[in-house]
Amino acid sequence: MNEINALETYNKLAKSYSDKIDYKPHNAFYDRPNTLSLLPEVAGKHVLDAGCGPGKYAEILMEKGATVIGIDLSLRMIEEAVMRNGSNGEFTVHDLTHPLGFEDQLFDIVICPLVLEYIYDWQPVFKEFNRVLKPQGTFVFSITHPFSDYTYYKSKDYFTTEKVSATWTGFGGAIEVESFRRSLMDCINPLIENGFTVDKILEPLPVPEFEKHDPKHFKELNEFPIFMCVRAVKNT
Ligand SMILES: C[S@@+](CC[C@H](N)C(=O)[O-])C[C@H]1O[C@@H](n2cnc3c(N)ncnc32)[C@H](O)[C@@H]1O
User: What's the CA-to-centroid distance between 220 and ligand 1, angstroms?
Assistant: First the structure.
């Protein structure tokens, strides 16, 4: 029930995901500019990219002078991240539902864009992110918006976290992608319960370049959000 096919899915998607990630409108002109806007200055900072996928975020952050360690469930994604970033950064396979192999207070920043949907229980994950962050360290994540998910999946019970499934066609052939949908309070309270203060929530707008690539979704995203970006700060 609390198991989904994320590993198999992202191993299959890795190559086309990496090929498209630089310009795919929902990533390049919606998620990334908004999620990145929540980060403090990253130059000289030590960043954990949790669920790094093909390493696009890592690439951007390293260009800005950060040192980045990327971890991901999918070996194929890690291979793409290494191909993209060459000898820059460090990328290893790791399942975020297991404890992190890092010492306490190692990182200034943890980012986790578009990953948490694939994890049922966020409590141990946020506890680990809190442990590896320095005091006052920043945790930034993006997720699909809980209200958008509720509508999209035609859920009958808003309050119960449930396994859902969607057919994606944006990365080549059709592929069934399973994830977990949850309420707004179940997105935010695990932060507060694991030593974070919520600092800012963004219901993002697409940046103008989105319109050139996909005018229909540009209009829709200006009327209703499908992602939500959150910045939290580790309590001292
Ligand atoms: C939609 S992609 C996002 C990739 C990247 N963060 C980005 O925004 O470009 C989701 C990623 O989460 C990873 N993932 C899913 N479940 C995970 C888990 N339990 N532990 C680590 N990574 C996971 C997948 O393998 C995939 O690379």
Answer: 25
